[in-house]
Inverse folding.
């Protein structure tokens, strides 16, 4: 890990600027503020396959960062008292990184296999109105340590991909054709161990990336509300603010994390929760088993020991020091700097991005407030390209969530290098940027139409811009 | 930490100043000239270091499987010793790949399959009670055993005890069935890793993959060699060379700040990798050799072609000398840790800290390469 590269690069570049004569290329343009996607203190200039794994210049405790990194990357094992133990008895994956290949998003697959790296779909069993069926946890558990059995045997999960044809026969006005696919998911009834209502449905969601989430945490609640109000006052693309979520300290915050905006702060966010519930490794602030009463009852019926499963455990498997270090790492992951912004094609793409309506929801920048956890994150101008609000894209078979948070676009152009794939959208149905744009129906259909009417080179330029940011 | 930081800042400030001055010349080195030499570096790295090392690793893993099968057929101490010796040889080549864990090792999860740690002993005990364990083969192990029951450490558990080849009387028939199945998976994974960098593997290796119904992934070696051209995920040769350097920095960091630092700071013997063979110091040294091979080109005893060192020397001879010295220093300081590492976590602070410092110094030196790549 390059500990101080970013700070030093910045200082070196300052030398560069001052050393050059007036007739030299205007380097200040090359390092304009948009290059610093995560602000001066939250950006890494590493553009290798390690780009999503770098510490921000704002990280002050590298030892804690390294420990947290190890907790994210390691495979948890069963038993206790051994480093990285406490897996199970029922769980979703044995490591965090399994679902975040290269620290990025999971990849699109046709066969669910929770042992496979990058095969990171989360599965939800829910009623048609979107409520998780009570026998199951919010994210379905498909693994258990013998002799326990998982709520669902994952061999019974089937992901089927279907072709989709839009109202234009999947053809641009210039005659170029495109292809779109979407998933449906079923689970064989005989592979479901627990009671389930007759009208149950199954949805999938790919994981999100991790870098930059600490900076998103530093956006103030008031600014989120102001953005909601701004959009409410206009006649289109009126974003919905996440519901208020009460934290352990009694404060309430609008949801800003996950596709459904179901988590309000990073300290109580999806990563903080996942360290516990994906593996079922307990810690003092999450000292209970992540399992439903229906599953515990079923294990009891099978004659298995369920002693202590229903309450909290006095002896936990991680300490709060472990968790604090994990959060230093989580919060400290830098955003990769933008690349190639001075390239004429990228600049042409940027002009298109700003002119066809993308920025209505993909709000380019924010300025953070005061960050109480990582002071360097305070007052940073960041470029996530998201309004952090939920919108309805009107897509075929959206699954559990009809409205999804606008995805931050920063750093996504490095996904192929870092994570080995370019899949996008909440269920990873889009195999590249072009397909992701073409799935923008609903509130974004006007912008979609404008995209369709661009020339081929204009469409390519727009995608070059997306790859660069 | 602070002193090191400011030292690094000062060194890089000088480099930054030199770079800035150089960048203001009217006739800078044309980008094309560096592209050509960097492509040579990438070609040498891919063919003479990566593919060669993975090839040797795959060869040793095939021999290891054969020796495990021999042990199952004839339970003797001689056969345990032979398999254990081959494990050490194969392990050496694996550790010498850890400076290039990017790409296929990561994309296809071959790294955690080959070298997941710690071993899940509780689950292994469950597996060994399976009444059908004698019928378990590599295909079954691949499907039903997670990463924590596969790879070098699973094999190590059966073959070693307290740093020695295990007495044959202590190895059960169930463990031998497990051993052969897991050694089969290791063989397949090592061959697949070689194939992912060089699709032109031997027909014997191809047959093993075909029989296991494992595909040969797209040729990542070609992407590295053809950086900057269509079909490569590396947009420029410079980006691919930075990937090489990043791999080296990462393993220098991991050896110094995790593999050695974790056991040293926690004083927990269970945090020392290679529990059963006590091979840790050799593992760490081979990790540094991995960096050495990437930097100097080829592998030990077979250096050839335009190496990263040649490129760095052309740009900054002092930096090249410093990196070479830092590599030798890191190896020497690691070797100076009293063996076995697990038994000396608390009584030899100076040597252990020196080894950690040497790894960090190497990482710092390697990080300076970034500033000279053009």
């Amino acid at each position: 890990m390059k500990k101080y590269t970013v700070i030093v690069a910045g200082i070196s570049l300052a030398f560069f600027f001052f050393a050059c004569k007036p007739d030299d290329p205007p380097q200040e343009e090359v390092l304009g503020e948009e290059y610093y996607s995560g602000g001066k203190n939250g950006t890494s200039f590493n553009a290798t396959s390690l780009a999503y794994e770098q510490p921000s210049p704002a990280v002050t405790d590298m030892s804690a960062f390294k420990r947290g990194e190890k907790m994210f990357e390691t495979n948890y094992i069963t038993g206790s008292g051994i480093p990285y133990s406490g897996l199970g008895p029922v769980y979703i994956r044995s490591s965090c990184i399994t679902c975040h290949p290269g620290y990025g998003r999971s990849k699109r697959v046709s066969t669910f296999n929770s042992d496979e790296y990058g095969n990171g779909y989360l599965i939800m069993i829910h009623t048609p109105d979107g409520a998780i069926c009570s026998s199951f946890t919010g994210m379905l558990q498909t693994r258990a340590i013998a002799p326990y059995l998982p709520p669902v045997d994952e061999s019974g999960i089937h992901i089927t991909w279907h072709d989709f044809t839009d109202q234009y026969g999947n053809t641009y006005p210039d005659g170029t054709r495109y292809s779109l696919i979407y998933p449906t998911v079923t689970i064989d009834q005989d592979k479901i161990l627990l009671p389930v209502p007759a009208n149950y449905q199954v949805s999938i969601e790919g994981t999100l990336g991790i870098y930059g989430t600490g900076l998103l945490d530093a956006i103030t609640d008031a600014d989120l509300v102001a953005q909601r109000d701004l959009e409410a006052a206009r006649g289109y693309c009126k974003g919905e603010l996440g519901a208020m979520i009460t934290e352990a300290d009694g404060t309430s915050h609008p949801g800003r994390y996950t596709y459904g905006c179901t988590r309000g702060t990073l300290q109580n966010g999806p990563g903080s929760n996942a360290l516990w519930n994906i593996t079922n490794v307990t810690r003092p602030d999450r000292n209970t088993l992540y399992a439903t009463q229906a599953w515990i009852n079923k294990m009891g019926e099978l004659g298995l020991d369920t002693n202590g499963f229903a309450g909290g455990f006095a002896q936990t498997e991680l300490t709060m020091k472990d968790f604090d270090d994990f959060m230093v790492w989580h919060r400290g992951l830098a955003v990769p700097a933008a690349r190639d912004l001075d390239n004429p094609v990228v600049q042409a793409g940027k002009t298109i991005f700003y002119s066809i309506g993308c920025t209505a929801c993909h709000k380019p920048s924010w300025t953070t407030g005061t960050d109480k956890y990582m002071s360097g994150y305070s007052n940073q101008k960041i470029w996530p390209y998201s309004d952090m609000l939920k919108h309805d894209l009107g897509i075929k078979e959206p699954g559990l969530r009809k409205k999804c948070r606008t995805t931050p676009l920063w750093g996504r152009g490095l996904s192929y290098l870092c994570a080995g794939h370019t899949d996008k959208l909440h269920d990873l149905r889009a195999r590249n940027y072009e397909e992701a744009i073409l799935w923008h129906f609903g509130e974004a259909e006007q912008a979609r139409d404008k995209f369709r009417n661009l020339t081929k080179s204009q469409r390519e330029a727009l995608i070059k811009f997306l790859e660069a940011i | 930490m602070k002193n090191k930081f400011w030292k690094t800042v000062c060194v890089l400030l000088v480099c930054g100043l030199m770079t800035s001055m150089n960048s203001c010349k009217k006739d800078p080195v044309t980008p094309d000239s560096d592209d050509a030499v960097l492509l040579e570096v990438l070609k040498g790295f891919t063919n003479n270091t990566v593919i060669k090392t993975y090839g040797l690793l795959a060869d040793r893993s095939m021999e290891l499987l054969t020796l495990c099968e021999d042990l199952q057929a004839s339970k003797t101490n001689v056969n345990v010793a032979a398999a254990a010796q081959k494990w050490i040889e194969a392990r050496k080549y694996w550790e010498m790949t850890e400076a290039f864990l990017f790409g296929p090792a990561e994309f296809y999860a071959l790294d955690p399959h080959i070298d997941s740690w710690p071993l899940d002993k509780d689950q292994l005990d469950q597996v060994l009670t399976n009444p059908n364990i004698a019928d378990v083969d590599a295909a079954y192990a691949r499907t039903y055993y997670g990463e924590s029951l596969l790879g070098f450490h699973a094999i190590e558990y059966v073959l070693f005890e307290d740093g020695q080849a295990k007495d044959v009387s202590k190895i059960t028939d169930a463990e031998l069935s497990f051993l052969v199945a897991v050694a089969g998976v290791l063989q397949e994974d090592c061959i697949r890793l070689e194939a992912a960098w060089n699709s032109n593997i031997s027909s014997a290796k191809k047959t093993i993959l075909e029989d296991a119904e494992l595909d040969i992934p797209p040729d990542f070696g070609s992407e590295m060699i053809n950086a900057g051209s269509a079909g490569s995920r590396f947009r420029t040769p410079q980006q691919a060379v930075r990937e090489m350097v990043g791999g080296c920095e990462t393993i220098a960091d991991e050896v110094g700040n995790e593999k050695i630092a974790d056991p040293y700071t926690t004083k927990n013997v269970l945090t020392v990798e290679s529990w059963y063979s006590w091979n840790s110091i050799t593992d760490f040294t081979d990790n540094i050799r991995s960096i050495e091979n990437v930097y100097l080109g080829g592998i030990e005893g077979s250096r050839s072609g335009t190496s990263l060192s040649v490129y760095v020397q052309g740009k900054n001879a002092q930096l090249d000398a410093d990196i070479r010295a830092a590599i030798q220093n890191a190896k020497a300081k690691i070797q100076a840790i009293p063996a076995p590492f697990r038994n000396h976590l608390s009584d030899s602070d100076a040597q252990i800290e020196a080894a950690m410092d040497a790894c960090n110094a190497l990482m710092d030196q390697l990080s300076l390469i970034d500033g000279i790549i053009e």
Summary: Chain B touches chain A through 53 residues (CB under 8 Å).
